[in-house]
Amino acid sequence: MTTPVKILIIDDDKELTSLLSEYLALAGYQLFCCHDGLSGLEQARSDEYSLILLDVMMPKLTGFEVLKALGGKHTTPILMLTAKGDEADKVLGLELGADDYLAKPFQHRELLARIKAILRRINITRNQQQPSSLQEVNSVSLNHATREVHCHGHLVELTGTEYQILDLLMKSASTIISKAEISEQILKRKLSPFDRSIDMHVSNIRRKLLPFSPNDKLKTVRGSGYIFLTGEG
User: Fold this and answer.
1) Strand 78-83 versus strand 100-104 pairing type
2) Running along the chain, 233 residues long, what does each successive block of 10 average in pLDDT?
3) Nearest Cα to 54, choosing from 175, 68, 178?
4) Integer Cα distance of 225 and 223 in angstroms
């Protein structure tokens, strides 16, 4: 018998979490619910879940405060549940380490599709055969066995999605990779108009590398995408 995939939802809307528990159970997922940010943070730190669904407005701690407490060092993917049309919440969530966002109200089928895409991406990455456990370009090294990142010998803490984007850019170093390609390969969905997810993830990677590097290793090519530079910097 297959063990259900464990998903944590941190949301104070008890009616919504109850409905989602029943709906996701039919798809083979086991949903664990926390209805305030403080208890949710404690569970999120337990590293027992394959995915975390995180609401913004909650008692005790907001979703943003939960992300700040996790410090962007988590490896469990986090899908932020934001207010519809609130771009500021989406951007802030991504800046603080969320892997993706979904605007409320949403269709249950849309949430299920997003969950499947995220988990499929994680499973593909974990099962992917690497020709070498160590990948190094321009003084940045990725250890695929431990999923650690070093820049000029310094440990850099990246989220799971940031790690995967950096891995893609480094494998294609000196080649421009479009945002649409990154979205399809990493987020497993087509890039939609005004979607800033990729921009924010790349910005986070750049910000985390810069303290250990005299020069920016990630170049934005306006209107085209991003390129990882191979020249020493």
Assistant:
1) parallel
2) 83 93 92 95 89 93 92 79 77 85 89 88 59 80 86 89 91 92 87 83 91 86 89 59
3) 68
4) 6
